[in-house]
Design a protein that fits this description.
- By secondary structure, the protein is mainly alpha-helical.
- It has ten helices and five strands.
- The protein has a three-stranded antiparallel sheet. A two-stranded antiparallel sheet has the order 1-2.
- Helix 1 runs antiparallel to helix 4, helix 3 crosses helix 4 and helix 6 crosses helix 8.
- The protein is elongated and about 55 Å long.
């Protein structure tokens, strides 16, 4: 089966190059980027982006980033989806109204839950605590915003917090159409709080406005 899949992917790659042309949309990408210069071509580039993205991605947006015709991107994504399904992997390329994203296959949910919840009584990691704090004080907030505040991709940590039941998705951001994250009643219970109004104020931990201005002036001088 693996050899047949490899031949199918190879034939598909030839079709992509033939349909796009050597100087077509698949070659002239944003900033001079050419997807065919990378090992695996278009499909590998799509995999790399989707593995990094914290939110589902629409094929049109991916096409714009890579400078490739949207039809070629859609066809490549569909071939990848079929390829993963045929090879019986533990993950799948899932397509929803919000776009394309990698996800664990539903039948492996018990395995993933066992891994994530192993040692539930153990303390949260530093990364998990920081991510939870950002969500608690900025909720409702998107994954992208949390990652931007922390300066690192938080998708894995957020999945862990979701499985633990400390946060959940509630609502959609109107501008980005991304899911909004909020804390749960379990979070309040674990923190010993009656409501979010009981969260400690951040004011004592913030620098004085005058100090910030003075530091800014000194830096400029």
């Amino acid at each position: 089966m693996t050899e047949a899949m490899d031949r199918q992917d190879a034939d598909a790659d030839v079709e992509e190059r033939d349909s796009s042309g050597s100087a077509g949309p698949a070659s002239a990408a944003r900033g001079g980027l050419c997807v065919e210069q990378f090992p695996g071509g278009l499909k590998a580039c799509l995999e790399a982006i989707l593995m990094t993205a914290g939110e589902p991605q629409h094929s049109d947006d991916l096409a714009g980033v890579l400078g490739v015709d949207a039809r070629l991107v859609a066809e490549a994504l569909e071939r990848l989806q079929s390829s993963y399904a045929m090879s019986e992997r533990g993950f799948e390329l899932r397509h929803t109204a919000r776009g394309w994203r990698f996800a664990s296959r539903a039948e492996f949910e018990p395995v993933v839950a066992a891994f994530v919840t192993d040692g539930q009584s153990a303390r949260l990691s530093q990364a998990a605590m920081e991510t939870l704090a950002v969500i608690a004080y900025r909720q409702p907030v998107t994954r992208a915003r949390v990652s931007s505040i922390r300066g690192v991709n938080c998708d894995g940590v957020i999945r862990s917090l979701l499985v633990r039941g400390l946060i959940c998705e509630r609502g959609i951001d109107e501008e980005s159409r991304a899911s909004l994250l909020v804390t749960t009643d379990l979070f309040l219970e674990k923190m010993g709080l009656s409501s979010l109004d009981d969260l400690p104020s951040l004011a004592p931990f913030l620098p004085d406005a005058g100090e910030v201005i003075e530091e800014g002036v000194e830096t400029a001088l």
